[in-house]
Write a structure and sequence with these properties.
single chain, about 130 residues, alpha+beta, 5-stranded mixed sheet, 4-stranded mixed sheet, about 20% helix, about 35% strand
């Protein structure tokens, strides 16, 4: 058993696609336009060297102003393979203004930093 994919709602599909492509080298699938749900569009992205997939989804009902903390999923963690890789991406993301918290060893034993997607969802980058 394995997780097939996770899905993220976004009000701006193109910005999300660019984020995942820029920072994680994601392979981007073609847009899917639903014939059953007016305005629904999604794109699958595959993270380089992992096979992991994320479905980015949008529709006219997505409100970008809603509070980001609620019941449900909080973040995704992506292992970059080394502390050096975490440090390098964190430095790049700081310059780009998307670093939420810098590299550190956490109480649960992870070396990580936290960055934000264009919509404010959090991504932990770990060693």
């Amino acid at each position: 058993m394995h997780i097939a994919h996770v899905a993220i709602w976004t009000p701006d599909l193109d910005r999300q696609v660019a984020f995942w492509q820029t920072y994680f080298g994601a392979e981007i699938g073609e847009p899917y336009h639903s014939k059953r749900r007016e305005g629904f569009v999604s794109r699958f992205i595959k993270l380089a060297d992992t096979g992991a997939e994320i479905e980015l989804m949008t529709g006219p009902w997505i409100d970008p102003s809603e509070d980001r903390e609620a019941s449900g999923w909080d973040h995704i963690a992506i292992s970059l393979g080394s502390q050096r890789a975490v440090d390098e991406m964190a430095a790049r993301c700081k310059v780009d203004g998307i670093l939420v918290s810098g590299p550190r060893m956490t109480g649960d034993g992870y070396y990580e930093a936290v960055i934000a997607t264009p919509d404010g969802s959090r991504v932990e980058i770990t060693s």
